[in-house]
Amino acid sequence: MTQFLSTEDVARIVAARGIAHVLRGMAGYIEDDYRRWQEFDKSARSASHSPQGVIELMPTADAALYSFKYVNGHPANTRIGLPTVMAFGVLAAVDTGMPLLLSELTLTTALRTAATSVMAARRLARADARTMALIGNGAQGEFQALAFHHLLGIRSIQVFDVDPAATEKLRRNLAEVPGLEVRVCASTAEAARGADIVTTVTADKAYATILTPEMLEPGMHLNAVGGDCPGKTELHPDVLRSGRVFVEYEPQSRIEGDVQQMPADFPVTEFWRVLAGEVPGRIDAGEITVFDSVGFALEDFSALRYLRDQAAALGMGKRVALIPEFADPKNLYAQLSHGVSDPCSEPGLADAAH
Questions:
Q1: From the CA atom positions of the chain, what is the Rg in Å?
Q2: Chain mean position to CA 216
Q3: E strand or H helix at 88, and its extent?
Q4: What is the pLDDT of the chain when averaged over all its residues?
Q5: pLDDT band at 296 (very low <50, low <70, confident <90, very high)
Q6: What digits encode the pLDDT tens for the residues 198-217?
Q7: Are residues 289 and 310 in the same domain?
Q8: Is 228 in the active site?
């Protein structure tokens, strides 16, 4: 039997543990897996693009477990009542191929993306960072704000979105968070002014320049989350040239990240090398750092492991017969008799059978 976790199950895990605990735990799982980067099979995700958006498959595996995520990105979906991003994933045993866990990943992707952002910011942002600009206040906004507040000590969020309703939604959702001030701004430039960290998480599938060089200030850390497929960017090229750029998996980031607009020899650093001690994170207080995050399969692998363990500890989810249970594994045909009546007993079929 395969364990199944619905969106409601994941919401119940968050309710039982608290969102700060879940974000901290998920960030820990992701960091643990990044520290053993060399143990994983890695490839850029497989993507099917259309004028409306993209549908992707994101696989990875270590010696014991295999995972994949199905995920889409369709910015216009909200006009018809659907999320921009929808996802589910599987965690399977490498030695047998048996799917151990089938889980929703729409809500979980938002959690793991924010957890990954903070994992990187711990090494790349200034230790005294207390103010963050949040450009793009859609579905991911609250998760980024809460992750940086609870895990990194951010006390003030300066927010802007071209859609005032999105900003109002975010302000309302964060209104009761103790110790977190939300200040609504009239432009990206106003939001970025005086910020220690600038997080961009916009949705439009377009070559955009949300952040431009004149908005930069010494010591900023840029957490660029929204540029995550070919033809979609958020940072002006000169912003990338202004500091050191860190990525998840370089072959994928060169295709999908903000660095897609840069020459092939533009220098980037895979973040696992920071955790491994091969390269430094932030060097000094005045340095500008950029985390060009597109989302990588390893983070979903970690999130699925976290959900599996939390569900087991809390007794959540249910077992489903995703794979047939066999008396004789070679007799697949016998499975057709489970719950299927004799065709000849169906009205109108008896004569046809003769």
A1: 23
A2: 26
A3: strand 87-93
A4: 94
A5: very high
A6: 999 997 778 889 999 999 99
A7: no
A8: yes
